[in-house]
Every structure is written in C-alpha cells, then in structure tokens.
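Re: beginner question about structure tokens

> Can someone show what the tokenized structure looks like for a real chain? I only ever see the sequence side.

Sure, here's an example I had lying around. Input first:
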Amino acid sequence: MAFAEIRDVRLFFTDEGSTDPVLLFVHGYTCDSHDWSWQLPHFVEEHRVIAVDLRGHGRSSAPPLGYSATDFAADLAALLDTLGVRSVVAIGHSLGGVVISALAVERPELVSRLVCIDPAYLILDETRTDDDSFNVALAAMDPVPLVQQLLTGFDSPGRSPALRTWQLRRVEGVPHHVLRQAFESQVTGLARISKSRPYLARRACPVLSFYADPARAAVETALFNDERSRAIAWEGAGHWLHQERPAEFNALVDNWLACLQD
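And the corresponding structure tokens:
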C-alpha cells in the first residue's frame, strides 16, 4: 500500500504482483478501490495489479476542484508516470469506465486494452432534464440522501443486502463538494451520447465492455476501432456486474486477454 503526491492530490493506491501486462483498476462514483475485492486476489496471481482511489474518494485527498473525467485521467497518467509503468490494461466501472477511456484517448501510449463495466457514457441526451434537476437539488440540499437514492435505483433484484448497505454507507463519507462536482462533471461532460460518441470513437485500443442493457452494448459496438473488441450484455444484472457475477467476469477477462496475446 502506498500514497503518492500527484499534481494537487494525494492518491492512495495498492501495487501488487509483478507479471505483465499490468492491470489498472479504477472504481466508480462514490466508490473506492475496495470495489475490486472480487478481482484483486484472482488477477494478482498472474499480473501486476494497481488499484487506486480516485481523488475525493476512499483514502485519497479531496482537493476543492478537479472532478471531471479528464482530471481523474490526468491523475492516473501522473501516477503511472511516477511508478514508471509504460502501459496498462485499464479496467473501470461506471465513472471509472469513462475515466479509463479518457486516459486511452489523452494518453494512448499508456493503455493497451480497456475493460469497461457498465460505463457511465453513451447515455441518451433525453435524460438531461432529469439530471439538470438533480444537479439543482444537489446544490441546494444535503447531497448524501439524494445520491443514496440515486444509487439504489441501479440495483438488481438479486443484489446482496450487505453490498447495498456497504455502498450506501460509503456515500456518507464522501465530501459534499466531491458528490456535487463529480456528478455535475459527468452529466455535463462525457456521459451524454452526443458528447461521448465522438470522443469514444478516438479510442484505438481493443475494448471489452460489459452492460446490463443490450441496447447500450449495441451502441458501443458501433464505435469500436479494433476488431478484437467486444461488448457483452448481461440482461437482468445490476450496475455492479463484476461483484454480482465475479467468477464469470474474471474468467471472461482472462480469456479475452489471453486471446489478444495469441
């Protein structure tokens, strides 16, 4: 375990294992690197594995500004540069899927592969009005119960009550300015399909994406630039697919990465 002074933030990360390719795990909004507890013990057996708490989340510091996807990606690039890591397979959930995609666009030499889990992009522009109203409420009220209610709506019927409790309790520990700015930066940034579609089309590396919604998987498939890319839909799953079906998820990632090395 370690902390790194990067740009204007103190990032917490873990760095274990020693075998290439290096895997970089990036969590979602209001979460932290503990979200990968179902993956880290598995992948560290064959890879060097880095898991980071984004600024404002977990054990990392929470500067007053810097919560857009490109800000988060710049932090990750600086961390990898500091560690002397030249290239990673970047794995991201939700907001983390947007962040690693931004890393692949802005610093393509650092990302050889992407694995995006129910990423927070390619969302229909028609939902913008609801998000604008939510932003207004976040600014005017205590954001914690609002964000907790939002995240509860992402559950699947089979999601463990313990995991739901864990997720909602963590929201209470995220600074209010982070809850507000990180959400606003998403919905005014790369979340909307009108903005994310042209941006994501700039990703040159192979991409493996997991969705609960087949329609969103089909939209992303049309944006792939590498024929080895795949979009997988698990209908009926919730937002935390890698936690709900960890053995299947881990095996699919293993097999995909192995195929790319053939």
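Each token stands for a local structural state, so reading them left to right follows the chain. The mean pLDDT is 94.
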